[in-house]
Amino acid sequence: MIDSDQESIPASVSWHHSRLIIYTMILFGVFGTFFALLAFAVGDVRSMLVFATTAGAVFLGLLVHMIAGLNTGTRIYYACCGVAAFLYLITEGGPNKTGLFGCLAITPGFVAVLGFRLGAAGLAILNLIVGAVFYWDLYLPPGPGYPVLTEIKFFLTLVGLSLFSVAMDYSRYANERGLIEMNRRVHELALRDQLTGLANRRYMDGILETRWEEYKRSGHIYAILLADIDNFKSFNDRYGHEFGDQVLTKVGRALGRGLRNQDVVARWGGDEFLILMPGQTGFSAVQAGERLRKRIEEMTIAHDGDKVSVTISIGIASVDKSLDNNDMLSIADGGLYQAKHMGRNQVVLG
Ligand code: GH3
Ligand code: MG
Fold it and tell me: Which ligand sits nearest to residue 245's alpha carbon?
């Protein structure tokens, strides 16, 4: 019933992840530009064009990333750029056969942009392709002519780096999940009453605020019902505090079971419960309150073979343009006071 705002942590986690990829891509773009200039300086036009194209593609991806965020499109775009650069470097060799270093720099990036599942699958395929390129000499002419030992060592390094990258991203993913779960639990603990398991006053305050804003904006009415257990002190005095706790829990649960999905019940304090009923006028809330009152009246709680009965009194207030939530709470409290005054076990519209 408690809707905790679970998005805050995941959003910030993915925001950091997105930033990290932006910085990495800026680095790739800058290096690409640097190598293009270097190739230009030594008159290697082909390498210059390749590096300049790669840097241009990376910067284009960055622009889209910064505007649209790290969505599926940007992830796939980055991965395609990486695959193209990787395959070119491995089959062409790059300037002075240094392309293999570039391939190793690109490898962890696949997992970073695709996530560990898709990244692992992509890297597995890429490892197989590299194996095939080395085994069947599938090079671009004239071919880099790597020594066999270089091919073997590179292949083993690539497999190791791929596994390490996947393991690291899995660990990041597991930590992120843990953080989300912890955040969810902390949030729930902060908003739940420990004894009854119902929402607490802090949660209800937030809901009242939201409802009030919605009423002002869209005219969606609601009513609040303040329920208080009659002569609750006598349960504590006669049967002990522990039994009093049991009464609070059972009454709270019975109230919760008697409500519609959109209604919210919270432990307001001591032996008081506040119920919010969206869409109810004062009149219909009185009928709903009557049903709750009867439900509690008909309930019995076992104590040492005895059946103990409980009753509640309810004060009601319905929303009105001239009232804010505090006014409504005072009105409901006034109704409750009257109900108590008139002999308890009653429902009064304040
Ligand atoms: P009334 O019909 O006028 O409401 O009488 P009452 O006896 O219920 O009076 P009151 O509301 O003042 O009593 C509330 C009591 O609830 C006082 C307090 O000791 C007890 N109480 C508050 N919180 C808890 C709790 O968490 N557990 C238990 N067992 N008792 C609690
Ligand atoms: Mg009471």
Answer: 1
Domains of the chain, earliest start first? 4-186 (no CATH), 201-349 (3.30.70.270)
Residue type at position 123? L
**Ligand 1 contact, 263 CB (< 6 A):** no
340 lines ligand 1 (CB under 6 A): yes
- From 233, 239, 245, 337, mutation site for ligand 1 pocket: most ligand atoms within 8 A of C-beta: 233
pTM above 0.70, yes or no: no
Mean pLDDT by 10 residues, the chain (350 residues): 50 72 92 93 91 94 91 92 94 89 93 91 97 96 93 97 96 90 91 95 96 95 98 95 97 96 96 98 97 97 92 97 95 98 96
Residue 342, number of CB atoms within 10 A of its CB: 11
Burial pattern 19-36, b for ≥16 Cβ within 10 A else e, equals eebeebbeebbebbbebb
